[in-house]
Write a structure and sequence with these properties.
two-stranded parallel ribbon, about 300 residues
Length: about 300
């Protein structure tokens, strides 16, 4: 933390998509530094990255670091509207790269492990991407733009994550909201599938990325928590952490594993943090420890029994 405070003192940081899951985590991570730095947090309503002139107007802010978190985060939505997916991810990223080039800002790009097809697991920096969905193809093209066009471009390929409280669109956010609805309806059992992934806390991602930026790292890194888990494992851990084990039982769905998704996802996706480990820069925690901390946040009081709520 001391290194980060010292490094970012006096910096001007611009964050696109600051109201999303990962963007929020970066805003929180910078707030923890409590130092003299300027953070320009731009949610979608304040900056549409596909509007090139709007993006380039921020040249006047003279950012020294740009965290490009804006994008179409829902893979199924990208599959339904591929033109919009490429417009947001590819054209939008090209505009942000132009801003980085004009201001000589270091540019961070969050990449998805959905650029891989799941035929090789775990994936790492040497694994050849082979996206099977529109989202992955658009993100891969955007990453190449960052690596080719941005000064000191940094792309971090991130495992599937949770975070953002009410903005959490991924499994943990969806499951906790569904769990509350089940309990309200008096239902004491739920079925959850066995797809395997690498649940990782957005705040852990953000803090680790700031370390990479502080060390002037560039190129491609893979980042994810140690350990993997099925959706069923994570759902069970959520029930335990929220103190609901005597009210609901999580069953493993085994009949067909139907997820009703437009985008084709692999049944297992895990990344190896090869470069982070080699360079001594891995600060990721086991997913169970990070999930437990996440579910202690005030947002989740609404899902806890009154006796388990934090004062």
């Amino acid at each position: 933390m001391v290194e980060l405070r010292r490094h970012f003192r006096g910096e001007t940081v611009l964050i696109t998509g600051s109201d999303g899951m990962l963007g929020r985590a970066f805003v929180e991570a910078f707030a923890e530094l409590s130092e003299e730095l300027r953070v320009i947090a731009l949610p979608r309503r304040r900056l549409d990255v596909t509007d090139r002139s709007a993006v380039l107007r921020h040249e006047a802010d003279a950012p020294t670091v740009i965290l490009h978190c804006a994008g179409m985060a829902l893979a199924d939505a990208c599959e339904i509207d591929p033109n919009e997916a490429f417009r947001v991810h590819v054209d939008g990223t090209a505009n942000v790269c132009s801003l980085a080039h004009a201001t000589s800002a270091r540019l961070f790009f969050p990449q998805s492990v959905f650029i891989f097809d799941g035929s090789i697991v775990p994936v790492d920096e040497s694994t050849m991407p082979n996206p099977q969905m529109v989202y992955g193809r658009a993100k891969l093209q955007a990453e190449q733009c960052v690596l080719d066009e941005a000064p000191q471009g940094l792309s971090v390929r991130m495992a599937g994550f949770f975070g953002g409280d009410e903005k959490d669109k991924n499994f943990v956010g969806h499951f906790t909201r569904s769990l509350a609805a089940l309990l309200d309806a008096g239902i004491s059992e739920c079925e959850v599938g066995g797809r395997r992934w690498q649940p990782t806390y957005t705040l852990d991602h953000a803090r680790n990325v700031l370390l990479l930026l502080a060390r002037s790292c560039s190129g491609i890194y893979h980042m994810g928590s140690p350990g993997e888990a099925s959706f069923h494992d994570v759902a069970t851990a959520c029930v335990e952490a929220l103190g609901l084990t005597d009210q609901v039982r999580v069953l493993l769905r085994i009949d067909g594993e139907s997820y009703h998704e437009a985008a084709l996802r692999p049944d297992r996706m895990v990344t190896a943090t090869t470069r982070l480990d080699r360079e001594g820069l891995n600060r990721q925690r086991h997913w169970r420890n990070a999930l437990g901390e996440y579910l202690e946040r005030p947002h989740f009081d609404q899902f806890r029994p009154p006796s388990r709520r934090f004062k």
